[in-house]
Amino acid sequence: MRCPKCKSIEDRVIDSRPVNHCSGIRRRRVCLNCEYRFTTYEQIERADLLVIKRDGRHEPFDRHKLSSGLVKACEKRPVDLEVLDQATEDIVQELETNFGREVHSREIGAKVMAKLHDIDEVAYVRYASVYRHFQDIGEFIDEIKMLEQRPKRDEMQQELF
Q1: Can you tell me the distance from the alpha carbon of 23 to that of 41, in angstroms, rounded to the nearest whole number?
Q2: Which residues contact 132 (CB under 8 A, 6 or more apart)?
């Protein structure tokens, strides 16, 4: 690692700890030349996923876009950012495990909606309104009625499939 201050490549790791639910490592380093302290982060390099859009275009999967969609849906709701970070991580892992190199955008949307249903129902309806292109109030009402009928998953119950 190159020191950001003096550009020396000689450094020592002072402290290491896991970040992002153990998918990365934060390292505190000290430059042996100028004694400047700095932080580095290591992340697992993931396979490049391609998203197949509704119109057939392919574009690279953007984790930030997924995360910002979750944050936007939960805006002004009592939802902790750590919960959203964990939801993002869970969705990315599911996509990489189940879909190889290409995934349809509708699959991503379905996974986001399932996570939001468990996290916050208002955020779920917000996301659904954009994802499903609601055109009038009747579609909102229908979605809310379906939401009331759908049972919320119990955290203590183990997922079977």
Answers
A1: 11
A2: 139, 143
Give the integer Cα–Cα distance in Å for 40 and 153.
38
- Convert the pLDDT of each residue in 103-142 to its tens digit: 998 899 889 988 988 888 888 888 877 766 666 667 666 7
> pLDDT digit string (tens) for 33-53?
999 999 998 877 666 888 999
Tell me the C-alpha distance between 106 and 51, whole Å: 9
The whole-angstrom separation of Cα 149 and Cα 143 is: 10
Using an 8 Å Cβ cutoff, are 87 and 115 in contact? Answer: yes
Task: Tell me how far apart the alpha carbons of residues 3 and 1 are, in angstroms, rounded to a whole number.
Answer: 7
Task: Determine the Cα–Cα distance for residues 100 and 30; give it in Å rounded to an integer.
Answer: 40
**pTM for this structure?**
0.61
